[in-house]
Specification:
Length: about 475
């Protein structure tokens, strides 16, 4: 079966001139059409009681859209902020259409398979596809049809909207008044991860995937590159103070946040009646053709033959970074991961023990995320990472398709960053080798670990 139905196989595919312009036009008109229906059905679900209501209200993306604010057609140069952020979002960014996709045929089918009446009214969907906040936190300009809008990422604007343009106002002052601090890499990564991986309130589990939802995967630097940029990284600093290795740090931080959030999902779900949750296991362990001869039988099993492995993709690349930065942390992490892994593959495991073990890893990953967000990264670290991840091809391929996918995104992100700073001789050959990994991931049915391991290792060989 087709697991990796990725429209998203690389950064370059997204930059398609004519198609993008057409989409921009379509996006704009559908946005207009929806906004003009002013008495749009008010959102049904309010925020769950479990989540404490933030004290500030949400004003809607429309409140940022005036041409004097963030709705300029072209980038301005008078200020540090180009002020065309709204136009970029509404015309090019898929987030602006996140709500409208809930009206599509595919969403209707998912909803039917989930026993949901209407996707666009269900809190099961709105939590990630729109700004699903309690009615008392919505001002008059709020519109659910904005989908994933400015305040989905930047936080409720009421507390800073009129102040944040003042000369004597700072980013820190906005953060104190409810703005989400996206300059901080941990809080940025966890914001994206809350929708792109899921959290206690919003989850894409195996039931939703089986119903037809795309399986979620995430890596911050790759997804940042895929998102039509409406900002320049660290633009508040002087050009000379900006970190040229920002992307490596963003990658590392996001890996630790992903591991933390994944382990939190495991800890939560393991307490559930519906455990085991299949989406926490390696998809291909169950979804593959039975062929003879079988590479699985030839390769052999590390544990109990015929049990699905858990999905270690958020750990297998991260551990290379942890080893470089702190060997003691790496040893402790390896030990705790081995503990939770063993519990997950043993079907007789006690559910409470799984939760304890998963929380232990989540707590360590949380500390690692803060550490990695400020870790010293440079050209040497970036190169050392590419080399050690590439040399680890066999272990990564053993982890399964998801792990190879993380390795591919990682190698592309790190190498792009490296190649920007250092001119090597066979840059194109290395980029092609990474691309061939993505091509291979497009064909999950013919998944063959030794071939993928070799492709991963090829990157290191070409580096010399
Ligand atoms: C945990 C967050 C989350 C929840 C809950 C969620 N989604 Fe999604 N959905 C996403 C993300 C993220 C994507 C984009 C996946 C990607 O491209 O990587 C997506 C993509 C989709 C797509 C494909 C859109 C396209 O452009 O092709 C559809 C359709 C969809 N979701 C419908 C639903 C429906 C219906 C529900 C409720 C039953 C739902 N989603 C619940 C996060 C979520
Ligand atoms: C999917 C998440 C997301 C959405 C949606 C989003 N942003 Fe952003 N935005 C970011 C990230 C990440 C940054 C970079 C971090 C930073 O500079 O604060 C950023 C940066 C910015 C900046 C630059 C801030 C600075 O100090 O340099 C502005 C201005 C901005 N966004 C405005 C908007 C507006 C207006 C909208 C809605 C039309 C919007 N954003 C929607 C994620 C998002
Ligand atoms: C409130 C939930 C939410 C948050 C927060 C969020 N996203 Fe998304 N994102 C979505 C949904 C839903 C989609 C799918 C929209 C669609 O397909 O129409 C999506 C789509 C995307 C896509 C397009 C993927 C594709 O298939 O082409 C990228 C890239 C992306 N998000 C990056 C980010 C980044 C980077 C952040 C953090 C700065 C972020 N997102 C934060 C919900 C979210
Ligand atoms: C422990 C075994 C197991 C694991 C692991 C597993 N699945 Fe499934 N999956 C199943 C079973 C059993 C069904 C139901 C098949 C049926 O209805 O015939 C199913 C159904 C599905 C379906 C719908 C049926 C179809 O043919 O379209 C999809 C899609 C799917 N799984 C995707 C995934 C993805 C993606 C992952 C990894 C994130 C995954 N599965 C992990 C066992 C598993």
């Amino acid at each position: 079966m087709q697991l990796a139905h990725r429209e998203l196989t690389g950064r370059t595919m997204i930059r398609l001139g004519a198609v993008v312009i057409l989409l921009m036009a379509m996006g704009y008109f559908s946005y207009r059409a929806i906004r003009s229906r002013s008495e749009w059905e008010s959102p049904v679900a309010s925020a769950t009681e479990a989540s404490p209501a933030p004290p500030f209200s949400y004003t809607g993306s429309g409140s940022c859209s005036s041409t004097a604010c963030h709705g300029g057609v072209t980038a301005r140069t008078a200020n540090r902020v180009p002020q065309n952020e709204f136009s970029t979002w509404v015309l090019k960014d898929k987030h602006a259409r996140a709500y409208t996709v809930l009206l599509d045929k595919r969403a209707v089918q998912i909803a039917r398979n989930m026993g949901i009446d209407r996707a666009e009214r269900s809190r099961r969907c709105l939590g990630c596809h729109a700004l699903n906040v309690a009615p008392e936190l919505q001002t008059r300009s709020f519109a659910i049809a904005d989908g994933v809008g400015c305040e989905s990422c930047h936080g409720p604007a009421e507390g800073w909207l009129s102040e944040h343009t003042r000369k004597d106002w700072s980013h820190e002052a906005s953060v104190k008044r409810g703005m989400h601090d996206l300059r901080d890499l941990v809080s940025r990564a966890e914001k994206c991860s809350s929708c792109h991986l899921g959290d206690a309130e919003n989850e894409v589990d195996h039931q939703l995937i089986a119903a037809g939802h795309p399986d979620l995967f995430f890596e911050l630097d790759t997804f940042t590159a895929l998102m039509p940029a409406h900002w320049e990284e660290e633009s508040w600093k002087n050009a000379s103070e900006r970190d040229p290795w920002f992307a490596t740090r963003a990658w590392a931080t996001s890996q630790a946040v992903s591991l933390r959030d994944f382990m939190r999902l495991v800890a939560g779900r393991s307490q559930d009646q519906s455990w085991p949750e299949f989406s926490h296991y390696e998809c291909n362990a169950c979804h593959h053709d039975l062929t003879m001869p079988s590479w699985r039988q030839i390769r052999g099993y590390t544990g109990f033959a015929g049990r699905p492995n858990w999905n270690p993709s958020r750990y297998l690349v991260l551990r290379h970074m942890v080893r470089l930065i702190s060997p003691e942390e790496a040893i402790a992490l390896d030990r705790e991961i081995a503990g939770v892994g063993e519990l997950l593959v043993n079907s007789a495991s006690d559910q409470a023990s799984i939760a304890v073990a998963a929380r232990l890893v989540a707590d360590r990953a949380d500390r690692l995320a803060s550490m990695l967000a400020h870790a010293p990264v440079d050209q040497q670290v970036t190169l050392a990472l590419i080399r050690s991840i590439s040399a680890d091809g066999h272990e990564l391929a053993r982890g399964g398709l998801r792990s190879v996918e993380q390795a591919a995104m990682t190698l592309e992100s790190l190498y792009d960053n490296y190649a920007r700073a250092v001119k090597g001789t066979n840059q194109q050959a290395i980029k092609d080798a990474i691309r061939s990994l993505f091509d291979d991931l497009e064909k999950p049915r013919s998944f063959e670990p030794s071939r993928l391991a070799d492709r991963i290792q090829q990157v290191g060989r070409l580096l010399g």
